[in-house]
Every structure is written in C-alpha cells, then in structure tokens.
C-alpha cells in the first residue's frame, strides 16, 4: 500500500526518538496503521545533527516552511516547540491541507482555539497526545475512553522535571539547582526550564485536559499557576511528619458555578498511589461519574516515551485521514458548536484544604488567637503540630491542617494571623487535597 508521507519539523530529543522508534518498530506500526508511515523530509536548523539521526534516504532542509507547503507531504509533525515559529508553521500546514501531529502543549494551551478552529474548517486533524503526560495515552482516555462519563475532576503529576526534582531533593538531599541540571541533561526539561519549575508547563497541560474533560475552550490565561521554586525543605519535612507528600499537581474540578483550574504544590496523603509517583514519572487521576476513579501512570518525558505518543497519533491520523471530517472525534472531544460557557473560577473561589506554617513567639495565648481567627472565617482545623522550641529558643513553628474552605476566607484569615504581634514573618500556605 502507498506510504503516507510525513514531514518532521525539529529532530531534537522528541524528533530523534520518533525517528528511532518509527524505524525500529516499522513492521508492527505498518500493520497497525494499514500502510507504511514514512518520514520523507526532516527540517532542522542543525543539518549535520539531522543527517546523523536520519541517515541517508531522507530529504533534509533548514527551511521548515518548505515542508509545510510541500504537496508531497500528508502529515506534518511539529517538534520544534514554543509559541513563535511553531505557530506560523502549524497554521501554514493547516492552510495547506496537512494534518498536524504536535507535542507542543505551550502552543496549544495558548493558541489552541485558533488552531483547532482552522483545522476544523479545513477538515484536517491536529493530534496532540504527546503534549500531555508524554507517553501516557491520557488524551485518548479523556477524549474517547471516558466519553460515557460526566467527568467530575482530574488531578495529575504532569511535569516530569519538577517531580524528578522533588523526589531527588527528598530522597538524596540534593540541592535544587543540581537536580535541575540533571533533569536538563536527561532531556526532561523544556528549552526554558522556568516553564517547568514555575508550573507553566504543567498549567499548559492542565488547561488542555480541562478543555477535553469539560468541553470548555482552551483558557491558559485563566489558569492559576504556582511552581515549586518557593517550596521550603521545612514544609516537605513537616508534611511527611503529618503523613503527607508534596507534589506539583495540575487540578481541574467541575463545580456548580464553574471550573477550578490550578497548578500548585499540593499536600496529598502519603498512602495514596499518586503520592508515590517518583522521579520523572507522571500520573493522572480522573474521576468520572460512571467509572469512578481511574489512574494513568507512565513516563511523561524523554525521547522514546514521548515518541510513543507521537507515533500513536501518526497511526490514528493515517487510519482516519480518509474518514469524513464530520465523523472524526472532535479535537476537544465535544462537538465544536456545543462548547460550554462554564467559566473558569478565579483562585479566590477555589475550595480546598490548607497546610499553614506559622513562625510564632513561644508564649501563652498565641494559639488561642490563631484558632479564633480561623473560626471567625468558618475554617475548621483538622490537625495541628507544634515543634518543641530548642533550649534557649524564643520562637517556634506551628503547623495547622484545615478542612475544606474557600480561598478568599483563607486569605482573610492569613492577613489577620500575620498582623498578630506574636507571629513573625509570612505564614506559609500550601493547598492540600484528600484525593
Ligand atoms: N523533551 C520531552 O521530554 C518532551 C517534549 N515535549 C515537547 O516536544 C517539543 C520538542 O521538544 P524537544 O524535542 O525536547 O526539544 P529540542 O530542543 O530537543 O528539539 C527541538 C529541535 O527543533 C530545532 N529547531 C528549532 N527551531 C527550528 C526551526 N525554525 N526550524 C527547524 N528546526 C528548528 C532545534 O534545533 P536547535 O537545537 O539548533 O535550536 C532542535 O533540534 C516541544 O514542544 C516540547 O515541549 C513534549 C513532551 C515531552
Ligand atoms: N518538560 C516536560 C517535558 C514533557 O512534557 C516535563 O518535564 O514534563
Ligand atoms: Na500523552
């Protein structure tokens, strides 16, 4: 059968992995797709590197635009990354009637509405399994496997770099900067690693999952984002003492008034499966009304795990490209004319439990003042831990875990607690989910 022709843009970590796996498993992939999938052209800025990965028999160019306009190319695989040239290339590819496969979550989280609308109009597919949780087929699960369900919430460890950093810091006591360098060397980190450590990459992925789960437009600008750079070793230690682990979670939850969409370090009970996801591994929990809780676990970054998702998309697109565009699974799972208006709630309206660390003077009455302030905001306490002050020490830490409350009530309580004379410095506040 006539091969389907693929143009690959960017032969770095994921592009290289895609090339290797496609070649290694060529026979099985062909049998699954129904026809050979051939990368006929590769565009990369570094032609020497491209030649060393692609070998002979593949056309090489440093002009990616010549690939997206090439009439011989059926599918464009965009693995350059970023919002700049990648956006122009994807839009141009769509304009030229090419299907697109991309791992670029940043691009889709920011420009997804425009890109999916253009693809829909042109009758082409934009497939992006690799963009969320790398090799884990979470897009497939959300778009197709769980289509009978009203999805209530999802929560995931969806950034391998930060999970790797948190694991190595906790288990080996290594410093942040050293572990980040290792994550970069292993190919996990984004070109700009602040995207990883400041939670932006996880927010891109959470944004995409929320749109598919709830049938709302892609709204990265409404997502609350907090990374791991302000996390302190003391809080990781106190959390452990109270039976919790801290993970950077992407959370999307349906509430009556709207959708919670947030990324932040989160305390999770240490016994839960998701609390034990270590290193660069990813895991996503999805709660559907019919199926209950489901958990997806695997490698969320790295050359071949991500290539696994890119190639699965290539197989899907190869199978479906002759199908009537109206009868394909919609990009965001719901029919485009039935996208919901349900708003994304501001962080002030989010409902969660909290971990608070207060640095206080060790004198009578402080605790009574703090508990009164919390009670005034209708916040009830679940657990408390007070560190015994060392010999001669005048100050100590109090750790408080609360039951569910609304973020704005917690903000008001924290402001009042910080104004107490006996409380020094800022109150450390982390969110806690009893998933
Ligand atoms: N690495 C991972 O584990 C994962 C990555 N992703 C996503 O996959 C995409 C690719 O990531 P990754 O492979 O890690 O990135 P790399 O930086 O390793 O690869 C990108 C490649 O594209 C090349 N490139 C840059 N600009 C152009 C251009 N204008 N024309 C042609 N080639 C160009 C780069 O060349 P040069 O180096 O010379 O600039 C490089 O070889 C990103 O969107 C990323 O977010 C998704 C999941 C996991
Ligand atoms: N930088 C990302 C790569 C995959 O999306 C991560 O660390 O998870
Ligand atoms: Na995936």
UniProtKB/TrEMBL annotation:
Residues 355-431 form the ACT domain. The active site is at residue 205. L-homoserine binds at residue 190. It holds the Pfam family ACT. NADPH binds at residue 105. CDD domains: ACT_HSDH-Hom (cd04881). InterPro entries: ACT-like_dom_sf (IPR045865), ACT_dom (IPR002912), Asp/hSer_DH_NAD-bd (IPR005106), HDH (IPR016204), HDH_cat (IPR001342), HDH_CS (IPR019811), NAD(P)-bd_dom_sf (IPR036291). This is Homoserine dehydrogenase. It comes from Zoogloea ramigera. The gene is hom.
């Amino acid at each position: 059968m006539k091969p389907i022709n693929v143009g690959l843009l960017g032969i770095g970590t994921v592009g290289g992995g895609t090339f290797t796996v496609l070649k290694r498993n060529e026979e099985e992939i062909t049998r699954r797709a129904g026809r050979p999938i051939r990368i006929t052209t590769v565009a990369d800025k570094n032609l020497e590197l491209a030649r060393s990965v692609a070998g002979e028999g593949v056309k090489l160019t440093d002009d990616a635009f010549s690939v997206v306009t090439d009439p011989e190319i059926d599918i464009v695989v965009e693995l350059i990354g970023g919002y700049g040239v990648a956006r122009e290339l994807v839009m141009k590819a769509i304009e030229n009637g090419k299907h697109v496969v991309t791992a670029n979550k940043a691009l889709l989280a920011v420009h997804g509405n425009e890109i999916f609308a253009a693809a829909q109009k042109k009758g082409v597919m934009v497939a992006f399994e690799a963009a969320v949780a790398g090799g884990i087929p979470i897009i497939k699960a959300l778009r197709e496997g769980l289509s009978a369900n009203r999805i209530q919430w999802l929560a995931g460890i969806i950034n391998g770099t930060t999970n790797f950093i948190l694991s190595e810091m906790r288990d080996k006591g290594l410093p942040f900067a050293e572990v980040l360098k290792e994550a970069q060397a292993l190919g996990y980190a984004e070109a700009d690693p602040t995207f990883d450590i400041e939670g932006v990459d996880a927010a891109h992925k959470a944004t995409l999952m929320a749109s598919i789960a709830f049938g709302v437009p892609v709204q990265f600008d409404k997502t609350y984002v907090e990374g791991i750079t302000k996390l302190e070793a003391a809080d990781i230690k106190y959390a452990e003492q109270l039976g919790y682990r801290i993970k950077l979670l992407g959370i999307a939850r349906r509430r009556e008034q709207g959708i919670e969409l947030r990324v932040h370090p989160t305390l999770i009970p240490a016994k839960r499966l998701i609390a034990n996801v270590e290193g660069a591994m990813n895991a996503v929990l999805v709660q559907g009304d019919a199926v209950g809780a489901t958990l997806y676990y695997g490698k969320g970054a790295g050359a071949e795990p991500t290539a696994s998702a890119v190639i699965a998309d290539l197989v899907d697109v190869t199978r479906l490209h002759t199908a009537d565009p109206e009868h394909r699974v919609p990009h965001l799972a719901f029919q485009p004319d039935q996208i919901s208006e349900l708003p994304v709630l501001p962080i002030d309206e989010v409902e969660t439990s909290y971990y608070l660390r207060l640095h206080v003077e060790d004198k009578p009455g402080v605790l009574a003042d703090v508990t009164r302030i919390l009670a005034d905001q209708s916040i009830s306490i679940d657990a408390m831990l007070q560190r015994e002050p060392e010999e001669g020490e005048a100050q100590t830490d109090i750790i408080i875990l609360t039951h569910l409350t609304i973020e704005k009530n917690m903000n008001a309580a924290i402001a009042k607690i910080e104004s107490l004379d006996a409380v020094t410095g800022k109150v450390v506040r982390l969110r806690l989910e009893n998933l």
